[in-house]
């Protein structure tokens, strides 16, 4: 059996929990800003391997001045701060509940109530524990716990002696130490929330999201293809709010001054303004491009039609419309994540509801008779159950979304791509 050793702070969650606890417990302290900075500094020194973990932990706990009530507030806060790529991949945790271990220098009191909501077993959570006085104030921690010591994760893993290949995922130096010790097969530096260069440069693989880790290792995942592998070409005046939305989704953002063929041919998404649109000819060779978001109106009917002929959807909005910084990225994201085409200027309108426990397939084809029958014939020949199916057309294309039961031969996808008159085919999730 494979085992997956996952860190908690800045990996499973977006934040460092002790830093957040300090924000709660010291809210009314007159010197709170100075103490916050001390705690954050001690965290970073330990994570970068510049200060022993045991010394960092001891000094941080002394500064906290926290109690059980503060911990309750912290847990509520952390539940809202689970890393996006972890929160959407509950299917992995459910299917690998025996092999997933949370191993952290943090504390069970706040880790357990957060991670157990993701099918992670209590007995697979390894972390420190606080010591309280009679009033419920934190006065220390269990110093016998190996995770309170320098190299604690290495000590723990030696004690566990797990019988199988072990993969480590984390952002800090203590996670890299597992690789350095030879106890794990591969170490993945997790950089969705923070990238520590001293750690990333020593990793077997840098994973900007948990989706990337699952994709590389061919494990069950919520999305078929990690967003960090999809280049989002940004040309012209595109607002910060729009870029922020795309970055939160995990896209690989590329800023360029002009739309050059070489850049466009690598892009899956194009964001541009009204004055920097691609030509119809450029779209003929943009084989990876799936969607264009224009902050302004599309330049010509010909551009919209050529894009449609090539299976490229366009969302546009009047120039300088105050809503378009939010409107355009939301439309692009809804198409990429769920196949929704509502408000597109060149695709037929479709807003399918999301279906859980199913795989969603998109098939774009020339609008000729009989394509839907051929698609369904592939499913029938492989005894694949269709959960839901939607077909819309315009004069140029047919656009089909099919939700099917999980568990089928991947060769089915190649057969769907091979149907005559197919323009583009994509597995969404």
Automatic annotation (TrEMBL):
The keyword tRNA-binding does not apply. One of its GO terms (biological process) is L-serine biosynthetic process. Pfam families: ACT_AHAS_ss, HAD. Keywords: Amino-acid biosynthesis, Hydrolase, Magnesium, Metal-binding, Serine biosynthesis. It is an enzyme of class 3 (hydrolase). Its cofactor is Mg(2+). Its EC number is 3.1.3.3. It catalyses: O-phospho-L-serine + H2O = L-serine + phosphate; O-phospho-D-serine + H2O = D-serine + phosphate. GO terms for molecular function: L-phosphoserine phosphatase activity; magnesium ion binding. One of its GO terms (cellular component) is cytoplasm. Residues 360-429 form the ACT domain. InterPro entries: ACT-like_dom_sf, ACT_dom, AHAS_small-like_ACT, HAD-like_SerB, HAD-like_sf, HAD_sf. Pathway: Amino-acid biosynthesis; L-serine biosynthesis; L-serine from 3-phospho-D-glycerate: step 3/3. The keyword Hydrolase applies. Gene3D superfamilies: 3.30.70.260, HAD superfamily/HAD-like (3.40.50.1000), NAD(P)-binding Rossmann-like Domain (3.40.50.720), Phosphoserine phosphatase, domain 2 (1.10.150.210). PROSITE patterns: ACT. NCBIfam families: HAD-SF-IB. This is phosphoserine phosphatase. It comes from Mucilaginibacter limnophilus. The lineage of its organism: Bacteria, Pseudomonadati, Bacteroidota, Sphingobacteriia, Sphingobacteriales.
